[in-house]
Amino acid sequence: MPTYSLTLEYDGTDFAGWQIQPSVRTAMGVFDSALHAVTSESPALTAAGRTDSGAHAHGQVVGCTLERAWAPDALRNALNATLPADLAVRSVAIRHDGFHARRDAVERTYRYLVVCRDGRSPVMRRNAWTVRGPLDLDAMREAAANLVGTHDFAAFGSAPRVGGTTVRHVASVSVERNVLESGAAGETVLETVAITVCANAFLRGMMRSFTGALVKIGQGSAAPEWLGSLVDTATARDPSLSIAPARGLHQWSVSYEPAATDQELAA
Questions:
Q1: Is 262 a residue of the active site?
Q2: Of residues 11, 32, 52, 152, which has the active-site annotation?
Q3: Is the pLDDT of residue 252 over 80?
């Protein structure tokens, strides 16, 4: 009975999050139905994380054990022929017995995309948060430095399990601006700011709270020191924090320790 990991990409706009829920469309529910249609099996699924309703994934990892052995490319292709347009399997890997997509993950990366302009952005409306710009990236980076390291982030989110720890290790935070210009006039067509956080694990709402705070600082409504004052000092979510909308949140990647038995077919 081989164990597999499957790396999924999905547009979360029309999903009520990852986890199966009654009477609503979720990414897990759609994937589970496709897996059953292809394999005639209904295995237990593990996932690297639970994305919010409306949030997107580029590297959601799902683990399962099947009774029938599949070549990774054959399983990927069969699933992609069955899945809807807003969800796809990027790659399939054969994993060691007992592989668990969440417990075995050593690092997770989330990216939040912000569009800076005074008006609406119809093209980016499904996958970014439009804010009045420009943003002060130097101030945002100064503030973000306070998040790096092992800290209690209770001010920014809640533990997935009742009574669970709110301590997490943030390996890195980056704030980068990208500007696209028209070739003829040199006019800025699209200005985005990408906030990328790598951590061993995330609290519920943590990345969106980080983003809300950093944008507030970038707009000049708070000083970088304010963000530092929230780290290691709270026991519950801080009411002064605004939570960025889910549409700009992108689950980017999940890292695992290499294993000699793993075989991966990249898309």
A1: no
A2: 52
A3: yes
